[in-house]
Structures are given as C-alpha cells and as structure tokens.
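Bumping with the actual sequence this time:
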Amino acid sequence: MKFPLPLQRATLVHRYKRFLSDHVLEDGESVIAHCANPGAMIGLDEAGAETWLAPVTSPTAKLPFRWELMRVNDGLVGINTQAANPIAEEAVRAGAIPELTGYANLRREVRYGVNSRIDLLLEDEARPPCYVEVKNVHLRRAENAEFPDAVTKRGAKHMAELAAMAEAGSRAVILFVVQREDCAAFNLADDIDPTYAAAFADACSRGVEALCYYCKLATDSIDLEGAIPIVAREP
C-alpha cells in the first residue's frame, strides 16, 4: 500500500480524546492530526516520539493531517487501524497470502450475519465463499504481537458471526495484520480482554481459521511481508 502523498516527519506532543494528537513538524509548526486508532495504544503515545503524518487534502476534512506511522526503537509502527483492510486486500489480490489464493472475486464491506459487514469476501464458483475479518495489530509485549490492546465487544461479536458462517458451510478466517516488524509471534491479550479471547477460542473450535501476517513498513508504503505463528500467551 503506497501513501498517495509524501508523509511529513514530526514529533509527538500528546494524544488526547482518543482521536486527536498534537505534533510539531520539522519546521517548528504545531499541528493537530487525526489519530485513526480507537485503542489504548499501549506504549505508542509517548511524548517526543518521531511520527509521520499524511497530509489530508479533502475539502471537508476537519484536520490537515492524519497520523500514520511512528518510530519505536529502530523500527516503524503503523498506528492507523483503517490501513489494515487495504493492506490485506492488496496482499490477497497479489497472491501474497497463500492460504487465501484461488478465488475469482473479492468484495469488501459485504453485509452478512446480524447487522455486520465482512471486511473481505472471497468468492469462486468452484468452492464455498470465504469470509475474512481483518484485525489491525500494533501492540507488542514480551517480543510478541498481541490483540486486542483494549476491550472490544465488537471484536467478540465478529468472532461469533464468523463461527456461524463456518458452521453454515462457508469458510471463515480471522486475519491479524501486524503493522510492525519486530514481533517473533502473535498471541491473544487475554489479560486485557478475556471475553474476546474466549470468543476467539470458541470460534476456532467451531471451524474459524486464524492467520497472522506482519508488515514491512517504510515512510512511503506498508506491505504485508510474511506469516508469524500464533501461540499461547505466557502466563
């Protein structure tokens, strides 16, 4: 996924009201950027961090920038949760996820279940449809990527919806997209949201498949890079 316009380097002042963040550009200008991340952003909102902002050109936009990346230690982390879906779609279309190849058509945001929309629906006349729910991951603890970083009732609902599709004869997949490169494996943050962890385990026992891929990040693009194993969290 290429950024349509060059990102601007900045320094984080602070994040507040969940979706707002103050930054200082390299020329010293103070700006407010939209933070497209409803999570807790544990360890990712420290003042003084190097950030990268995308200029917003829409005439109806309320803010001039959107916060896309930040530097943690020597690597970049994508903090825009809305980027996970286009990253996943591009990877599926390119055949970069072997488990999701062999489908003739791909559609996004298709209604299904009880008042829900599936992120990606893969279809082919020769096989059952494949419902793919995409989850953005940016939390890292003890060298592993973890999800979620906050309680997500919506996420638990999605797992139940996927399980119902699997039991009805469709293929159902939860795809975790890790927007960082420094994670050895992936596990559920069951201490943060035990209800989601239980919903995930239940869905997998009913036929839902779980995949996790990490991304290669640069200041001009983010691309799905490779799979990492899903493991149990160390107590």
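The tokens above came from a reply further down the thread. Residues 153-167 form the longest helix (15 residues).
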